[in-house]
Amino acid sequence: MSEEAFFTLHRGIPRQGPGTAEDVLWVLEQIDPPAQIIDAGCGPGADMEAFATTLPKVEVDGFDIVPHFVEEARDRLSCFGPRVRVWCGDMEAITGQADLIWSAGAVYFLGIETALTRWRSALAPRGVIAFSEPVFLTDPPSKAAESFWADCPGVGTADKIASRVESAGFRTRATRVITGRAWLDYYLPLMSRAARLRIGAGPDLARELDAAETEFAGWRAAPTEIAYLLSIVEPA
After folding, report:
1. Which of these CATH numbers, 3.40.47.10, 1.10.340.30, 3.40.50.150, 3.40.50.300, describes 16-135+152-179+224-235?
2. What confidence tens digit (pLDDT) does each residue in 191-208 have?
3. Which of 45, 91, 208, 217 has its CA 20 to 30 A from that of 54?
4. Over the stretch 204-233, which tens digit does the pLDDT of each residue have?
5. Cβ contacts of residue 19 below 8 Å, gap of 6+?
């Protein structure tokens, strides 16, 4: 994969993975009202926008290692003023005293155990972490789901995710399956951009567009079987 081609395709997309503002609202319904939120791997800031809009007094800090995602997020969130901040930095090294650490689809890059262990010191007393992770909805998984996640080693069932959470010294408070519409809301802008980029695309970009279209076709083949699990966890 060409990193330049990947970011050319993903530049300007509203969000960088499946999810909706309803997922944010669900998490907020499960926890005490937070005063400080950290978004680890915030991308272009879609979920930060949902938090800041829903909680007009909350402070939100977002971290992402990709400079142009940080730029997009800063532009998107400038209307909220200084209570919403976006930093270019490694999400593994976040610090603070957050009531909620949120990470949509990004924990995978660190591993559940590493992420939870690293982030524990950034939690305020009674603070929680909410993260979404690829999940198999059946055991054994359907052939469609197994094929879709073939390049992502370690994907397991909800029970396996809960076990990994426990091994990091946390317990699972609540979970929510993210499937269907949340994925379509991610893919439609991505496929629209891919179509616009197709004309005149060089070899590296063409391969990236092919891969994205193949991924979308794999999801369309089984949209109810391909999912993320959103978990709210707290130190045990």
Report:
1. 3.40.50.150
2. 999 999 999 999 999 999
3. 91
4. 999 999 999 999 999 999 999 999 999 999
5. 46, 47, 104, 105, 132, 178, 182, 186, 228
- Cβ-contact 64, 73 below 8 angstroms: yes
- What are 102's strand-pairing partners? 39, 130
Six-digit token string for 97: 């005293």
What are the residue boundaries of the structural domains of the chain, listed by start?
16-135+152-179+224-235
The pTM (predicted TM-score) of the whole model is 0.95
Three-state DSSP state, 137? coil
The pair of structure tokens assigned to 136 is 């198999």
Q: Name residue 62's beta-bridge partners.
A: 39, 86
* Predicted local distance difference test score (pLDDT) of residue 104: 96
